UniProtKB/TrEMBL annotation:
It comes from Chryseobacterium lacus. Pfam families: Big_9, CHU_C, IgGFc_binding. This is Gliding motility protein. It comes from the Bacteria. InterPro entries: IgGFc-bd_N, T9SS_type_B. Residues 132-444 form the IgGFc-binding protein N-terminal domain.
Length: 1129
């Protein structure tokens, strides 16, 4: 907690276990209730081994760091706070993964130094000695109620599925999770390796001051325990001062009953010095110094030794001797700094190891002994090096050195009241790395402090248990060693029997067995190590065999140290062969190697086996080398020429093996070969006469290995030439019949490629087999005979045979040369012709096919054919090749010339008046006429339309077309009438037009003026004078005024009489052009002067009246004014 005065950090390294030299260390986690800033937590690691080695740091079985240490090279490791210290209530009373496990191959010291602002402590590891299954908790009494004070204990599991039970605490205590000792009289939980469990109670409750001291911890597997206060105050009701009070515990099995303490830095009277004793058995009596019994306590009870029991032994050196009637826990309470009002803020809390003559004689080495990083009121930026005092406890008469020199004068030795066997030292202001040596048992501790903190602990506080260390793993090559420095004498034993002259710290075994060592130190009783099992190393041996195909091997020891049989179940192949297979008989243990077929050479495999001794089975690995001498053979085939179904065979030419040297003998049957029947031995192996079949060769190697190969006896292929008579065509029609004799060969000679084939013109040359051979591309002009000679590559006799070649039958034609003409239908001298239309002149045979060519050469050679559809220009000649299956081709000649027909020069298109006819004249000088009307005369009369006429001239017909068209008649499209004046509109026909209204008087103007009312006929004609068109029209009486005044006179303008006209339009407008009336069938084209329900005003209006007479396109149109005189209402 925060102090009001400068405070002292007191490092009192007094923990009989502090930094015990060991291979494994554990640190259980803690809970911090101060809430102070500037946290630090570091592992300090050191060793006496000069050869560097790695140290591994684990959290929850996960590696979080590695450092390399050696003597003179200690190391520090910054521990992430989340792995070792928590402030969260959720991490309490439940399995968590906080805590550290530190491990190396060689022994080392380990301690955890940690701080927060104004508070610091050191937890020294006791190594493997810190783990056990029975503990009693130790915390400092809490003498003032304060929420930053607490008691706590944490348990760290070293194995999986560890069940832990905590009990025997006071029923009145209240845990920080809200439960009480009465409600929960025990806590049971299960932890896996690396998991931990924190128990805590707040210092704000009076019942928690001492209620958890002496609680019992029982586990079914080894655990590690840390206990104390984070923070605590045991000096009195001092609410403003406190410090961390924490140390690692040990199991009950590691306790003793005599203890030596050196006072810390506090003055007697501040109530900061003293000791806390916790009993593990009932009726435990407590004695201090040379006094009588001062207290008797039972299991789980505690007694606090007051500071007044310290005895001044000189030079301000106080010590205290404690003994108990039963083994007990002793924790020292101390102050790290002696200053007015601040000593109470520098408390320390350290486990005290029991005194024992087997304590080590050497503490080598303690690294950075005066370091602990801390921030405080007096050192707000932090301080690393803390004033530190080294305390030593050793046997009387011991020669002590620190870093190789005696302790300074005035620092000891100091006697102790109550014992004459032990003395103490107190050496102030030590720093750096410390090595302590003594001629007798010794333990070392420190206390340290500065303005606001204090702490302490002990190193090497346990009796040494001799341990056998093995270099190597088995015989030969293993050496057993017990620490050569600590002990005075050594004696080695094998299976409990003394080994003569084996009295050195090291021993090299030559026989398997259980080895122990008995050691002594001073006047202490001998100690014996745990038995160390030593086994014989795997024996490596080798075997060699020469075999043909198989080899049987019976495993056997090459040598044994302890007689024993082979355990058949242990026989195993550990390295397989490559040229064969190996099997183990599971009943007999016999090993059988079988070489692969066709394998020769050297093969190896390795097998192993062990004996059946129950404790020391000896094992052997055997490497087997196998020389495979089997004879590799191949089945082979030999051939001979056929002579009356048999052949003569040279068996020695059969390549049955590639191995050398070998001997080969031949037999006619497999049974003879297998038995090597001398009566059946083939003696004439180079000229063995037999039918096709098999013989057998026995092949032997010098090693006696034998194999049999089968020789297949075959006859060489026999040339069998078939009779031949062939007909061939003169395909290119040049008079020569060409034949490729290479195409004849496969027709008459099977397997022709195997033989040598030659053709001759006469039998004498063929018999001689001379060079007068015919070329393969040979020709003839008439029927002939040639000869084939077939030679075998095997030296067998030649075969000669005659071959008949005939000239083939040609296709028969009706004619082979034709002249044909065609008419030029379009008078250009060129005409498209299909040659196939002329084939019937040459042949009517349906089996004959024709191919067309532009030249005779192409037709003869059958190349560059053309289509049957050709273009003939005046005169062309074509060549037709005729073919028929099984007949020879022929060529026919077809000449085609063009005849040009004649066209009429007089026949031309004509125009006529409607309903009249034109005279069409085709002209003379034609052989015949045929009109599209069916008429056959030179001339015809024809009305409007399109006609044709076929004109025949020189045997060719030319069709010529002609058109007769009618002239267009004009149309009267409109007659516009205004006050007796008319205007005529005409379209179509052939302008100019002439107009008349009586049919006699004609004018060129389309306007007639001043016509009175009445009925008229309009006449119109155009310039073609094909006729006159007429149109009747009327000049009607147009109404120009109405007086709709309801007098019955002139009430309406009524044109309902015109409703029979087509497209009748009647519209009335006012003088502004606004439409006021539209005539419809509904209003019968009659207007009464009403517009939109009201009478129109008196005024002049304008109207349009137009229509079209039924069946015409002429529009008659009248326009006039209308005076409407209305009556006002």
């Amino acid at each position: 907690m925060k102090k009001l005065l400068p405070f002292l950090l007191f490092l009192f390294l007094y923990n009989g276990l502090l930094a015990q030299l060991d291979r494994e260390h554990w640190f259980a986690p803690m809970v911090d209730r101060t809430g102070n800033p500037n946290p630090y937590q570091k592992l300090y690691l050191s060793t006496n081994r000069t050869t560097p080695f790695p140290v591994s740091i684990y959290n929850n079985n996960t590696l979080i760091g590695t450092v390399i240490i050696s003597k003179g090279n200690p190391q520090k490791f910054d521990v992430p706070r989340q792995h070792i210290i928590t402030t969260q209530q959720s991490d309490l009373f439940t399995p968590i993964t906080k805590g550290l496990h530190v491990q190396a191959e060689f022994p080392f010291y380990a301690n955890l130094r940690f701080s927060v602002f104004n508070h610091a402590e050191i937890v020294t590891s006791k190594g493997i000695a810190s783990t056990g299954t029975l503990f009693y908790t130790a915390v400092a009494p809490i003498m003032v109620q304060n929420p930053i004070l607490n008691f706590m204990t944490s348990i760290l599991a070293t194995e999986n599925n560890t069940t832990v039970t905590v009990s025997d605490y006071a029923p009145g205590i209240q845990f920080s999770n809200g439960t009480t000792g009465a409600a929960v009289p025990s806590l049971t939980f299960v932890l896996n390796k690396g998991q931990s469990y924190i128990i805590e109670g707040s210092g704000s409750m009076a019942a928690n001051g001492t209620g958890f001291i002496g609680s019992k911890i029982v586990s079914d597997k080894p655990v590690n325990v840390t206990n104390g206060n984070f923070n605590g105050q045991y000096a009195g009701a001092i609410a403003t001062s406190s410090d961390i009070l924490m140390d690692q515990s040990v199991p009950v099995s590691r306790l003793g009953n005599t203890f030596a303490l050196v006072k810390g830095n506090g003055s007697i009277g501040n109530n900061m010095e003293g000791a806390l004793i916790i009993a593990t058995q009932d009726n435990t009596q407590i004695f201090v110094n040379n006094e009588g019994l001062i207290a008797t306590i039972n299991e789980g009870e505690y007694y606090r030794v007051p500071e007044s029991k310290y005895i001044l032994q000189g030079n301000n050196h106080y010590n205290l001797y404690i003994s108990t009637s039963h083994n007990a826990y002793v924790y020292q309470l101390l102050a790290g700094f002696d200053g007015a009002g601040v000593s109470v803020a520098t408390g320390g809390f350290n486990f005290i190891p029991a005194l024992n003559c087997y304590l080590p004689k050497q503490i080598d080495e303690l690294g950075f002994i005066d370091e602990n990083q801390v921030h405080s009121n007096a050192n707000p930026t932090g301080v690393l090096n803390i004033p530190t005092k080294l305390n030593l406890i050793t046997e009387v008469g011991a020669v002590v050195t620190v870093n190789g020199v005696p302790p300074p004068a005035g620092t000891g030795p100091f006697n102790m009241s109550g014992t004459t066997n032990w003395v103490t030292y107190g050496i102030p202001n030590v720093s750096g790395h410390i090595t302590v040596n003594s001629s007798k048992a010794i333990t070392a501790g420190i206390n340290a402090g500065t303005d606001a903190v204090g702490y302490g602990g002990f190193f090497a506080g346990f009796p040494t248990q001799p341990v056998i260390i093995a270099t190597g793993t088995c015989i030969p090559g293993i050496t057993l060693t017990v620490d050569p420095i600590i002990y005075d004498s050594y004696q080695w034993y094998l299976n409990g029997s003394l080994i003569p002259n084996a009295t050195n710290p090291s021993f090299t075994p030559t026989l398997p067995g259980f080895y122990t060592a008995s050691v002594t130190m001073g006047s202490c009783a001998p100690l014996v190590t745990e038995p160390h099992k030593v086994e014989k190393c795997m024996v490596n041996s080798s075997e060699q065999y020469t075999l043909c195909t198989n080899q049987e091997i019976t495993p056997a020891f090459s040598s044994v140290s302890i007689p024993q049989a082979i355990d058949i179940s242990t026989i195993a192949i550990i390295s397989q062969p490559t040229l064969g297979t190996v099997t183990i008989n599971p009943t007999t243990g016999q090993i059988v190697y079988t070489a692969n077929a066709q394998s020769v050479g050297v093969d190896t495999f390795t097998y192993t086996f062990c004996g059946n001794h129950p404790d020391f089975p000896e094992c052997e690995t055997v490497t087997v080398t196998l020389n495979i001498a089997q004879v590799l053979v191949n089945n082979a085939t030999v051939k001979g020429c056929e002579i009356q179904g048999q052949g003569t065979f040279n068996l020695t030419t059969a390549n049955v093996t590639t191995q050398s040297p070998v001997t080969i003998t031949y037999y006619p049957t497999l049974a003879d070969a297998q038995n090597e029947n001398p009566a059946a031995l083939i003696t004439n192996s180079t000229s063995y006469v037999a039918a096709p079949g098999t013989a057998f060769a026995v092949v032997k190697s010098p090693e006696g290995c034998k194999s049999i190969a089968q020789i297949t006896l075959e006859l060489f292929p026999l040339a069998v030439v078939a009779d031949f008579t062939g007909s061939f065509c003169d395909d290119d029609l040049d008079g020569n019949i060409n034949v490729d004799l290479s195409t004849i060969t496969p027709q008459i000679l099977p397997n022709a490629g195997y033989f040598t084939v030659r053709y001759y013109a006469n039998v004498s040359d063929a018999t001689a087999g001379n060079a007068n051979v015919l070329p393969l591309l040979w020709s003839y002009t008439a029927d002939t005979i040639i000869y084939i000679r077939v030679d075998s590559p095997d030296g067998c006799p030649a075969v000669i045979k005659p071959l008949n070649f005939l000239a083939g039958t040609k296709v028969l034609l009706l004619s082979d040369n034709m002249n044909q003409s065609v008419c030029d239908v379009d008078l250009d001298g060129i005409q498209q012709v299909n040659l196939s239309t002329f084939l019937f002149h040459f042949t009517t045979d349906p089996l004959v096919t024709a191919t067309y060519y532009a030249s005779q050469s192409d037709a003869q050679q059958g190349v560059n054919p053309i289509s049957s559809a050709v273009t003939v220009n005046v005169l062309e000649t074509f060549y037709i090749r005729f073919e028929r299956p099984n007949f020879c081709s022929v060529v026919g000649i077809l000449s085609i010339y063009i005849k040009v027909p004649k066209k009429s020069d007089t026949l031309a298109d004509q125009e006529v008046c409607p309903d009249t006819k034109a005279l069409l004249d085709a002209g003379d000088n034609f052989e015949s006429y045929l009109w599209s009307t069916g008429e056959t005369t030179q001339t015809i009369l024809a009305g409007a339309g399109t006609y044709w006429v076929d004109l025949t001239f020189d045997g060719c017909v030319y069709r010529q077309s002609v058109t007769v068209s009618e002239l267009e008649v004009p149309v009267i499209t409109a007659i516009d009438i205004q006050k007796g004046n008319i205007t005529v509109t005409v379209t179509g026909g052939y302008p100019p037009y002439e107009y008349s209204i009586d049919g006699f008087q004609w004018q060129t103007s389309n306007v007639f003026l001043g016509l009175p009312r009445g009925e008229y006929t309009l006449y119109v004609r155009d310039s073609s004078r094909c006729g006159v068109i007429t149109m009747d029209f009327s000049i009607i009486n147009l109404i120009n005024a109405i007086t709709p005044n309801e007098d019955g006179l002139n009430e309406t303008i009524d044109y309902s009489s015109l409703m029979s006209k087509k497209d009748l339009v009647f519209k009335i407008y006012d003088r502004y052009g606004k439409e006021v009336f539209v005539g419809t069938p509904a209003n019968k084209y009659t207007w009464d002067g009403i517009f939109q329900g009201r009478r129109v005003p008196t005024a002049t209006y304008w109207y349009i009246l137009q229509w079209r007479e039924l069946g015409t396109v002429t529009v008659t149109k009248h326009t006039s004014f209308l005076l409407v005189k209305n009556v006002s209402k």
